[in-house]
Amino acid sequence: MSGHSKWATIKHKKGAADAKRGKLFAKLIRQVEVAARNGGGDPDMNPTLRTMYQKARDASVPLDTIERAIKRGTGELEGVSYEEVTYEGYATGGVALIVEALTDNRNRTGSDVRSTFTKQGGSMAEPGAVAWQFERKGMVLVPSAADEDEVMMAALDAGAEDLSDGGEFWNITCDPSDTEAVRAALTDAGFEVESSDLTMVPTSTVPVTAADEAKPVFRLIDSLEDLDDVQNVYTNADFDDEVLAALED
């Protein structure tokens, strides 16, 4: 899972950059709203809402903003009805992508996603062509300064399945329903938790070992994430460490 470990760290950095631009708030609020609509407004009874609530708090979304989003989701306040849509496709080099969106206009979003794939040298795929290569998991990030064995022992007791080295963070994966239990166990054990989220983990990865191979993949992902309706983009690319270092320079 080394490829995805590095990607989890990349996504965290990209999310932090988006938060600085204020761009992340609107997407997080939409995720909270949809989670409340689908499973109810009580985080204790709705694991997905609990995870999205914590994700929004990690990004410093104001509490009253989150609470209003929950009320819109449950119908207590008037709001837009968003539909969950998933798109699948490929970047250059056969790298697989899954694109998750929340939209109030499926035709608009589908057109925007397809156009972005085309402009950036990728291609859309039929439903199911890519999804079988990924599994839905919970992901908790703990700074790598913490002792690996101690982190793993605390996480395992709460349902963690695996721990991998993402560079700056230990990436702990678990069943989606155990995400907040794993986070709570790590916090109770005295570890700093950087973030927790639901993610898609590739079952196998595609090596990307040169910067000229990685750049078009990153451009496509960045362009997709810039779309207002797109919430998450996942990839099975395994970026070489030297390539990542070169791209960050």
Describe the fold and architecture.
The protein is an alpha+beta fold. It folds into three domains: 2-74, Integrase, N-terminal zinc-binding domain (Arc Repressor Mutant, subunit A, Orthogonal Bundle), CATH 1.10.10.200; 85-131 and 205-248, Alpha-Beta Plaits, CATH 3.30.70.980; 133-202, YebC, transcriptional regulation domain (Alpha-Beta Plaits). The protein contains nine helices and ten strands. A four-stranded antiparallel beta sheet has the order 3-1-2-9. A four-stranded antiparallel beta sheet has the order 5-6-4-7, sandwiched between helices. Helix 2 (23-39) packs antiparallel against helix 3 (47-58), helix 2 packs across helix 4 and helix 6 (148-156) crosses helix 7 (179-188). The longest helix has 19 residues, at 2-20. It is globular, with a radius of gyration of 18 Å. The mean pLDDT is 89.
The poorly predicted ranges are none
How many helices? 9
Helix percentage range: 40-55%
Strand neighbour order, sheet with most strands: 3-1-2-9
Beta-strand fraction estimate: 15-25%
Q: Whole-Å distance between the termini?
A: 25 Å
| CATH fold type of the largest domain | Alpha-Beta Plaits
Give the overall shape, derived from the CA principal axes: globular
Oligomeric organization of the protein chains: single chain
**What is the mean pLDDT?**
89
Number of domains: 3
For the secondary structure, the number of strands is 10
CATH secondary-structure class of the largest domain: Alpha Beta
Gyration radius over CA: 18 Å
Order of helices and strands: HHHHEEHEEHEEHEEHEEH
Question: How would a crystallographer describe the biggest sheet?
Answer: 4 strands, antiparallel
